[in-house]
Amino acid sequence: MSAPEHLHALESEAIHIMREVAAELERPVLMFSGGKDSIVLLRLAEKAFRPGRFPFPVLHVDTGHNFPEVLEYRDRRVAELGERLIVARVQDTIDAGRVHDEWDPRKPGSSRNRLQTVTLLDAIEEHRFDAAFGGARRDEERARAKERVFSFRDELGQWDPRAQRPELWNLYNGRIRRGEHVRVFPISNWTELDVWRYIEQEELELPSIYFAHEREVFTHDGMLLAVSEHVDPGDAERELTSVRYRTVGDMTITGAVRSDAADIATVVTEIAATRVTERGETRADDRTSEAAMEDRKRMGYF
Amino acid sequence: MAATRQLLRLATAGSVDDGKSTLIGRLLLDAKLLLEDTLDALHRAGTNGTPDLAAITDGLRAEREQGITIDVAYRYFTTPRRSFIIADTPGHERYTRNMVTGASTAHLAVILIDARNGIVDQSRRHTAISSLLGIHHLVAAVNKMDLVDWDEARFRQIEAEFSALAHRLGVENARAIPISALHGDNVVERGAAPWYDGPPLLEHLEQVDVATDRGAGPLRLPVQWIIRPEDGGRGARRYAGQMAGGTLRPGDEVVVLPSGARTTVTAIEQLDRRLEAAAPPDSIAVQIADDLDVGRGDTFVGPADQPQGGREIEATLCWMAETPLRAGDRFTLKYTTRTLRATVDSIDALLDVTTLDRVDPPEQLGLNDIARVVLRTSAPVYADPYDHNRTTGAFILVDDHTNDTVAAGLVRSVRPGEAHSHRSPDVTWHESGLDRGERWAALGARGATFWFTGLPASGKSTIGARLERRLVEAGHPAYFLDGDNIRHGLSGDLGFSPGDRRENIRRVAHVARLMADAGVVSIVSLVSPYAADRELARELHEAARLPFIEVFVDTPVEVCEQRDPKGLYARARAGDLKSFTGVSAPYEAPETPEILIRGAEEEADAAVDRLLAELERYKPHD
Fold first, then answer.
1. What is the ipTM of this complex?
2. Is B528 a known active-site residue?
3. Minimum distance, in Å, between the CA of residue B237 and any CA atom of chain A
4. How far apart are CA B418 and CA B309, in angstroms?
5. Does A143 contact B59 at a Cβ distance shorter than 8 Å?
6. Residue B268: strand pairing partners
């Protein structure tokens, strides 16, 4: 079967973007969360740079609250590719006294999500990265709909939505001053469904939590959170049920969806029929306020 | 889902009053493409149970608060027939640049027109910009038809006017659709106008044939990146890039520009797949038969249909910065994967953005102005007219100080414009019948040019004058061309704008070349802050096969300022002198001068010794 034309166009655009960054910036890095979007990025990097090596390492910001299945996948996948993995740990940032832990296992919904920003910026400074690829998509959230493919961050890692460079044709301007860096989003123009269809088309392996599995969960603030060493449900009612994850974040704040979809084709069918957005369904962090995402982006969040 | 579903990129233009955001919201709502939580948020934002449709697209908080759309927002939706990317652009004249940005990648533009007001200047501007940016499909969404009681005569009048406007601008595929975004008529579902027999907007968007013939036109493959395999096994280098025109097949003969070298493509790859053919928008990697020096910025083209190369670009420029553009200003220019320096040679005409008619050339361009300009580049460019190729005919200008993208450019033509093109067209060079060898032999000397560059008060003239003395004392004719002295006579009519500076340098470069040709060692001492100007002087000499020795007197600005024999730094600091190099104007240090003199450290005599030794190198070895 030939690839759908629109998916092929999106893929070609993303490869073009990755090659532009590799050519025009000195020290890029690819931010890898173990989630499906960054798994797609790795695939696109293969298409852009093989049979050469990736002209950048892979960076994971580890909150200490990741799903073990995701960490296992991360290590295996990066080893398969033969590329370099850098792990920046939020715990180290806390231990260094740079931030205070905001997570309390007895308070479901609390997380280290915000703290990742500091760890990430520290890693960017330490390794003198001047470009960081991320898997963000414009369809995820309204503030992202206006973010450029090349998104500039000042020395403090902050994004100024009012001072974005015009982005014309496929001519990206990656010029920055020392100390600044640019976040680059090669799959800006993809939708959630595009990502899933691409995974299906390319037969990409995903961490097992993306598919239906039995898990002990409880309901918190309308979301299904997993019971784990990081989250204590307290008195909330626990149940063992078949779930899968639609996004991959911290165990502390990523909600599961009830599902029996055990393979990609079934998941794609479910996603195509869903009536709730990805972030609305599964990310407690984005529901806090109308402008939650815009605020965090201004602060340097990915 | 159809396997061949196309991607349609469309731009929407119109102001908030025209109901553009409401239209997009309606499109998504009625096509059942809004998910429940988004819909909930819209209901919370709306009143009386009516969702606030505009809230879907007005993403940034400032926009929600002010109720206007400032930036380009991208929206995505998919129907069983097509995938759509909407570039939602603000309508106000102040945001023309945003519309240009959104339109740059669009296949189709939807222009919102308020039925009560009809075609207004803004509609004309949106239509004109769309046509300028090469969009061949326009839709006038005549909105708020409910407020004119679905008056057919009113719609037909607007339709006729729009059609005439599009025709005049050369857009062949234009149509008008009467709608009410608020109530949903003719957006997704048919609506209140029985007299309208055309398709609703969405149906039109799904059906309109925007397919350009894939792979038609001349081959263009700009090289982005060289892939060097690690393992010796799969050996050969690959040249990676995205197809920008034509069709490429293994076995095709190609020309590499700018070198002009020819070779054959032996393989086209995408990861582990070997392709039989590639066409836009494929991102590919190719192998070639010969071991050539091919790098980023080079372009593979077909031998038969090569783009015009040259250093003069005639272009339409959309100016996007707050600071005005003047002739003589310089920038970094990026087209395809190539980056070089460019100077704005002249601003020839301003375009009326509602008609694209030429109006008198302005002194300068302001934010959102669109004009015809001529640019000169530091090296030859090989670009296509934008009308022929929207990828290889497009460029951006980047400000070297702010790093901002300050202009979008559309190539109209490329002209040779070599360094010596300033010759007068009707005058031919008069050969004296005497060759240079005879002349130099009679004089017992050989001509050359020393070109001193560096900050004001860096010590250029001190060293230059001493070099002149040493040469003349040794019996060699030499002449010191001091920048200040030249300005008293030959360049007495010039000021210090970038354009005038360039002209001054051009004159001095020609004088130096003539004197060198005569057998004299010309010693030029000029701040000459711009690399492109010095390059021009060098090319002039190299074309005439005369030695050109660039001498960079590198003295820290603090030292220069301390010396300040003419008190110029003090005046510049006080704001008396505008665009003073080193204080308020940039200095582009030479990267590879023939001679580098550390002005704060090296004694003038020692420096002169080195300069004389350098000159020796140019003597023929007989």
1. 0.89
2. yes
3. 9
4. 10
5. yes
6. B286
